[in-house]
Every structure is written in C-alpha cells, then in structure tokens.
Amino acid sequence: MPPLVARPWLHSENSSLNLSKKTVTTQNLSPSQVHQLIQGTSPTPEEHDFILWTDGSGYDLGCGGSASILMEVETGKKEFRISAFSHTSTHRAEFEAFLNGMQSIMDLKNWLTPHEKLKLDKARIKPTVCWYGDCESLMLSSYVDDTTKQPYFSRRMNGDLWYRYSYYETAFNITPIHIERNSMPEHALTDRLAGEGRMLLKEYLETLHKDHVL
After folding, report:
1. SS3 label, residue 64
2. Vertex 67: Cα angle to 65 and 71 (nearest 5)
3. Among 53, 66, 87, 120, who pairs with 97 as Cys (CB 3.0-4.6 Å)?
4. Bridge partners, 197 (sequence order)
C-alpha cells in the first residue's frame, strides 16, 4: 500500500475555496465547502486502510435499522453488519451503522486481543478509514477542524453514541465523505439492508401485538 500522504489543495479559478488547509478554518465555511475541504486535503479512498459504507433507516421514533459494509483495501475482504431496533430515531440508526462498521474492523483484524492491541499501541499506528454516508449532519459533526479542534457541527445530541465514537476517533484516522443517497453500489446495498431490517422487525412486532404477546 502506498504511504498515506495528504494531497495538496488543488487550486482552480472556478473553485469556491482557493486556500490550503493550513490557512482555512471551517467556522465561516458552508457545508459544501467543508466537504470540498475534506476531500481536497485527504488521501484518496484507495490510499486508506479501510473503506466503510453505512446507512440507517428509521421513522418517528419507531422501528429502525442500520447496515454497514466494510472493505479492507489491501486484501479486498468485506464485512457486513445489520442491526434492527424496536425504538430509535433515524439519526441514531445512522450512527449505529457507523459504530457497527468500526466494530467490524476490530473483529476482522482481531484487535480485541491484548497481544494484537499491544502491537498496535507500540507501533503508534492509527489505521485510516474512508467513511461514506448520506447523513450530512452526522458526517459534519464527526469532522474536527485542525485549527479550532472543534467539530463543524456540535455533538449535543446522542451523547452516549458520541462517547462510543470517541474511542474510534482516538484509535483511527477517519475521513468522513458525504454522498447522495444510493450514489454508490455499496451504499445502495446498505440502504436496502437497513430498510429491510427495520421492516422485518416492525412486521414481527406487529404480529406479536396482534397475537396479544406484547
């Protein structure tokens, strides 16, 4: 795998942001400019150690579903995860999809054992993850400005999930890339799996209610 070297900012007469990352803070930038900044100053997806696609499905604090697809770039190995919840929000389902996807890395690499974790700590290695998702508020809340050390969007909601996120934020270099829904085949699959997981649980719970089990 080639060394991970951030690409220099590409200057263009038509660019809405002709500045290097070192001279830019995100405080006065629009969301689209922040996305441009992230992609223009990060390694390409193929230069990351892992690529992660996530999606969540929910409706009015009812049943929800989440799904993730993880690919290890060097080997091409993929890991799939699907979860369903009887009571959640769409935003939490989106977040759970990411957290489950990151857990896939730990399981795939067997980094849950003391021996493997010790090797990683001694090497001071932070594996890199290119994360694709369509929940813009979540992606921008995960992005931390290098200068201000603050996320672009605040992390006021879902504090329990952000607490879990903090471990992965410390252990990995994560590049959040916002994409349009179903704009990539892998993301379209996560969207479908999350939706089907939600509906399967919803239908099952409705059957239990009908039979007076719940």
Report:
1. strand
2. 175
3. 66
4. none
Q: How far apart are CA 66 and CA 85, in angstroms?
A: 9
What pLDDT band is residue 25 in, cutting at 50, 70 and 90? Answer: low
Residue 152 β-bridge partners = none
Q: What is the pLDDT of residues 32-83, one digit of tens each?
A: 999 999 988 899 999 999 999 999 999 877 999 999 999 999 999 999 999 9
Backbone angles phi, psi at 89, to 5 degrees: -105, 165
If phi over 0 gives left and psi between -120 and 50 gives alpha, with beta otherwise, what is residue 97? alpha
pTM: 0.83
The average pLDDT across 108-120 equals: 76
Cα of 152 vs its chain's centroid, Å: 15
What token pair was written down for 92? 């939490």
* Domains of the chain, start order: 48-210 (3.30.420.10)
Selection from 122, 155, 125 nearest residue 139 by Cα: 155
The confidence band for 18, taking pLDDT boundaries of 50, 70 and 90, is: very low
Return the beta strands (E) in the chain as ranges. 50-58, 64-72, 78-85, 128-133, 173-178
Rounded Cα distance between 199 and 187, Å, is 18
